[in-house]
Design a protein that fits this description.
58% of the residues lie in helices and 3% in strands. The protein is mostly helical. 36% of the residues are buried.
């Protein structure tokens, strides 16, 4: 047998360059994730403590929001609501008749695991005896990191079905934002959502929540809204929920 030849210097250089580019891409994705998380969570904390965080050009421009940024933003909103949930609230009923607050959190974490798994996320063992906010964060962080690394190109498998990657992650934004509202309703809080973000999620919901999905029991029929309803209230009504008078979502 002839001697096995090693890689040429050119091949080594190309491989080294490709590896370096890959590492830079991974670092850039991680930096983007951290930037989005810090931006939205910081603004929401400021809004919660001061009442108004001021204009937000980033979130107000739907064309700048992709499925990953929207997922990060809706997670931050959901986390802020969960921060206001006391242990005494865990057994409270929600607008989802089959779920208490604690059970709805379990449902949401299951959705995050399912959608994160589509991007190849690996999840650590669930920690025992911790807050609902911490449990959702522990599930969401590896899920969003996996999506940042994978990107939104192509399609992913969800169970036995295949769908565009951006649409699949869009389901996560609907779940996080709508369930944030559910948690707030159950615990006497209000959800504050930038209008650009709620508009983006409403557009995604219009593509995902089809008549076929409603007929399968995933969502009730859309509830009519008045001409003065804000975008977040229209999103909530579109998912089949009634918006109580005087308890509108802030958008």
């Amino acid at each position: 047998m002839g001697r096995r030849r090693g890689p040429s210097p050119g091949r080594v250089n190309r491989d080294h360059h490709a590896g370096a580019v890959g590492r830079r891409d991974h670092r850039a994705a991680a930096a983007s994730h951290a930037e989005g998380w810090t931006h939205y969570l910081g603004r929401l904390v400021e809004a919660g403590t001061r009442g108004d965080a001021g204009a937000d050009d980033w979130a107000a421009a739907p064309q700048d929001l992709d499925a990953i940024k929207a997922a990060e933003a809706t997670l931050a909103i959901c986390q802020l609501v969960l921060r206001g949930v006391a242990e005494a609230d865990y057994g409270r009923a929600t607008v989802c008749p089959e779920f208490s607050v604690a059970q709805l959190t379990d449902h949401l974490i299951g959705s995050v695991w399912f959608l994160g798994g589509a991007a190849g996320a690996e999840f650590p063992p669930a920690a025992a005896a911790t807050t609902l906010e911490a449990r959702v964060a522990a599930a969401a962080r590896p899920a969003l990191e996996a999506w940042n690394l994978r990107g939104l190109d192509g399609a992913v498998k969800l169970g036995s079905n295949e769908m565009p990657a951006a649409a699949a992650l869009g389901i996560g934004s609907i779940e996080l934002l709508v369930h944030a509202w559910d948690f707030a309703q159950a615990t006497g809080q209000q959800v504050r959502v930038p209008e650009g973000l709620s508009t983006h999620v409403l557009e995604v919901a219009g593509q995902i929540i089809t008549p076929e999905v409603r007929s399968g029991g995933g969502f009730a029929d859309a509830v009519p809204t008045g001409p003065d309803a804000n975008v977040m209230d229209r999103l909530i009504a579109f998912t089949g929920r009634n918006v109580p008078a005087g308890r509108t979502a802030s958008s």
